[in-house]
Write a sequence for this structure.
């Protein structure tokens, strides 16, 4: 059940993309989502797709992972696309018309663009999470949030919380599995019966899981304090992030992409 | 020589306890530098509470604790914690770092040790516990014994003078337990470490210089392993699993065989059995 989760699953590799600074990857991924909205004709979308394909090829991650990233969202995407086709302002040739529902040439084109946007955003964010270990992402977030220190936002503490949360995900997943087996042995059926029965079956899973998590948290806090943890101030850092030439080059390539999009848009 | 740990008339009460109840009652003892002391006692007798009092994780109701000449108080607690490394029972619940190397560095980061220094101390510590090949591993992919060795590496890197083990081997399989104990012995040999080990493991207690027996919040007895093990079956009442040689001795005694009153190791027992008939 748990290992079907694609989002947040890191695929180890040795590509340029894997070795990029997570800050560059994170910021450029967000930037990419922004510039998708510059595109407004076939040529610009084609360019964005070409760019994405190039990045994916460079990463060496198998295509199937990206297709699997789209699959869980496909109904949401199609729903949005259909709405867009049926209700957007009509223009060009009208194929069909009934009340407020219109299928027009413009509507179809807009629907196709929306579909492309979804796919591009999913591909790029999947690329980010598949090529960046969660820990590096949390480091990147720490750096990016650093300016918030000025308004006394506890950046170090939040980053440590994030990294501890990530570190405990597999531990708690193992534990869930164990508790599920223990409850199955006592006759609880998971994933059977109607929705209410299924929800009821989750209760004997959640309660022991919560109790044990609180115990773990208590133990962890004790261990951290025993090892001299007094809050984020005054700590040194063992893990640091390094900005390399490749990160600058990636940034330049995004600048070129932006310029090309502006030049080619209608 | 002045003791490295000195506990005088320690009383402790958990906040939620009624006023006339104490978890620790008038506990006094001292430990010399370089000693290996085992603390034994039933579950719930107050051993963990005692350990947490020594490094100021819990504040006593009354009494004084002196560590390496410093009296434990609010302004000395962080200094004292630096001198004491503590390893707990559950290997998962004390693993803070996302990877092995990060976890070893955690204590150093707290002390503000420079990164250059950490880059030498962390690999050296991992090497000492024989975990150097696992530096980038995540805890989920380590065995319990490996996680405890990483915890020990964290101690080695932080260079405490005192190591407190709170049932650090009790959740491990026999092999993991042996590896962890061997690592601790080797740490003790490498630096003049003082070890305070809370344990139910008779073999571990047998190899200590001294044993403190805690019962119902009080220090009931203290002595060398040989002195304590003379109690035979009473040991189980003290919260120790009786050693195999002692169990055999008790069984022989029930068969009216004359057995020596002194404590015998397994080897000593074998030698004695060997000569039992020929000496007659
Ligand atoms: N956080 C706590 N709050 C209240 N009581 C506690 C707490 N921790 C332990 N105790 C109680 O204090 C006593 C001693 O516990 P502990 O020191 O953990 O024993 P040991 O380590 O010898 O098994 C037990 O009766 C236990 O129930
Ligand atoms: Mg305990």
């Amino acid at each position: 059940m748990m290992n079907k989760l694609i989002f947040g699953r890191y695929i180890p590799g040795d590509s340029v993309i894997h070795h990029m600074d997570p800050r560059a990857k994170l910021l450029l991924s967000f930037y990419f989502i922004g510039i998708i909205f510059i595109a407004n004709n076939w040529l610009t979308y084609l360019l964005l797709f070409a760019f994405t394909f190039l990045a994916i090829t460079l990463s060496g991650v198998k295509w199937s992972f990206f297709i699997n990233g789209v699959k869980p969202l496909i109904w949401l995407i199609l729903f949005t696309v259909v709405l867009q086709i049926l209700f957007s302002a009509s223009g060009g040739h009208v194929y069909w018309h009934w009340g407020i529902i219109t299928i027009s040439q413009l509507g179809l084109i807009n629907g196709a663009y929306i579909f492309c946007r979804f796919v591009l955003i999913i591909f790029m964010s999947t690329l980010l999470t598949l090529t960046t270990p969660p820990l590096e992402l949390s480091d990147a977030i720490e750096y990016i949030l650093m300016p918030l220190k000025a308004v006394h936002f506890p950046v170090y503490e939040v980053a440590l919380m994030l990294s501890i949360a990530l570190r405990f995900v597999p531990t708690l997943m193992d534990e869930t599995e164990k508790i599920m087996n223990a409850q199955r042995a006592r006759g609880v059926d998971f994933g059977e019966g109607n929705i209410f029965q299924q929800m009821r079956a989750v209760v004997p899973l959640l309660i022991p899981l919560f109790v044990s998590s609180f115990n773990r948290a208590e133990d962890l806090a004790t261990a951290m304090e025993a090892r001299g943890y007094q809050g984020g101030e005054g700590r040194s850092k063992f893990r640091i992030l390094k900005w390399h030439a490749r990160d600058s080059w990636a940034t330049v390539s995004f600048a070129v992409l932006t310029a090309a999009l502006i030049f080619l848009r209608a | 020589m002045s003791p490295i740990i000195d506990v005088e008339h320690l009383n402790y009460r958990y906040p939620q306890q009624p006023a006339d109840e104490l978890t620790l009652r008038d506990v006094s003892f001292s430990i010399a530098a370089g000693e290996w002391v085992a603390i034994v006692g039933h579950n719930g007798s107050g051993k963990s509470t005692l350990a947490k009092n020594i490094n100021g994780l819990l504040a006593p109701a009354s009494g004084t604790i002196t560590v390496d000449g410093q009296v434990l108080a609010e302004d000395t607690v962080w200094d004292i914690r630096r001198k004491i490394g503590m390893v707990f029972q559950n290997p998962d619940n004390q693993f803070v770092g996302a990877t092995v190397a990060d976890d070893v560095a955690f204590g150093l980061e707290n002390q503000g040790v420079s990164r250059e220094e950490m880059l030498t101390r962390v690999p050296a510590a991992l090497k000492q516990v024989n975990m150097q090949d696992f530096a980038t591993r995540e805890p989920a992919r380590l065995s319990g014994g490996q996680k405890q060795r990483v915890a020990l590496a964290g101690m080695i890197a932080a260079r405490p003078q005192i190591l407190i083990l709170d049932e650090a081997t009790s959740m491990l399989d026999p092999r993991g337990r042996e590896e962890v104990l061997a690592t601790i012995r080797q740490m003790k040999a490498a630096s003049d470490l003082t070890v305070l080990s809370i344990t139910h493991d008779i073999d571990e207690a047998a190899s200590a210089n001294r044993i403190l027996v805690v019962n119902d919040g009080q220090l009931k007895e203290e002595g060398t392993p040989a002195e304590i093990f003379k109690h035979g079956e009473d040991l189980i009442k003290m919260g120790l699993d009786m050693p195999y040689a002692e169990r055999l001795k008790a069984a022989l005694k029930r068969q009216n065989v004359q057995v020596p009153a002194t404590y015998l190791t397994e080897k000593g027992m074998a030698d004695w059995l060997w000569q039992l008939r020929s000496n007659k």
Observations:
- Residues B 14, 16, 23, 41, 43-49 surround adenosine-5'-diphosphate (ligand 1) (CB under 6 Å).
